[in-house]
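DUF4268 domain-containing protein (Pontibacter populi), 153 aa
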Amino acid sequence: MYTREQASQLRQAFWTAFGQYIAPQLSADGYRTNWSNYKTGLKHVYFRMRAEKKTATISIELTHPDPEIQELYFEQFEELKTLLHETLGEKWEWELHGEDEDGRTVSRIYKEISKVNVFNKEDWPQLISFFKPRIIALDEFWSNAKYSFDALK
């Protein structure tokens, strides 16, 4: 078992390693990108990567505090579902109005793998191999799709 401090340091070390590994990759628009903290440019729309003790998840999270507006964003993503899945090369899970760890209503489109542990350095290559192509594909998707959300700004 790790102390809170050790767990924090290991997580930070993983994300630093991931950031260094993916840093040379330019965005779909040809820019340098902070892949670990990806900015969609749209308030309440986030691309999140999480690595935990038993799972890893990459997701599009919709966090607007008004559930009806959050649903409008979700519906807009549903309109782009075919493009999203084609760009990703796989189908993801879709969850309207779930709860995050703080009890807030969020909607998510996500992919998860299990039997990986961010605290086990031997799992880091598998985690990086999971996150890297998907965040790059999300960026490619977003490069084309972000304009569809202009009316919701």
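The helical segments are 4-22, 67-79, 81-88, 124-145. Residues 28 and 144 are 9 Å apart (CA to CA). ok done for today
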